[in-house]
Amino acid sequence: MKTKEIYSVSVQITDRGITFPLSRKIEVHPPIEKNIKAYLNKYKYAMDLTTKFSFEITSSKFIGVGTL
């Protein structure tokens, strides 16, 4: 597998007029926004999110190079 940069990202989600931070950081490859959107869409039922949720990246930190 090809190695890529890995970022640890904190996210704040807004859904149904309520804003809340995600309880843990997500580790993703670039493009960060696209991969976070895919992650949240994959687990939106477990997090009880509607299809109209939005998110904002609150912090992003480079943690290394590798595969996920």
What does this 3D model show about the protein?
- Strands 1, 2, 3 and 4 form a 4-stranded antiparallel beta sheet that branches.
- By secondary structure, the protein is α+β, with helices and mostly antiparallel strands.
- It has one helix spanning 32-42; strands at residues 4-15, 18-21, 26-28, 54-66.
- The mean pLDDT is 94.
- It contains 1 helix and 4 strands, in the order βββαβ.
Compact overview of the structure:
By secondary structure, the protein is an alpha+beta fold. 16% of the residues lie in helices and 47% in strands. It is elongated, with a radius of gyration of 13 Å.
Poorly predicted ranges (pLDDT <50, ≥5 residues)? none
Per DSSP E runs of 2 or more residues, the count of β-strands stands at 4
Helix content: 10-25%
Query: What's the main sheet like?
Result: 4 strands, antiparallel
From the alpha-carbon coordinates, what is the Rg to the nearest angstrom? 13 Å
The percentage of residues in β strands lies in over 45%
Question: What characteristics describe this protein?
Answer:
16% helix, 1 helix, alpha+beta, 4 strands, elongated, single chain, four-stranded antiparallel beta sheet, 68 residues
Question: Topology, pairings included?
Answer:
Layout: E1 4-15, E2 18-21, E3 26-28, H1 32-42, E4 54-66
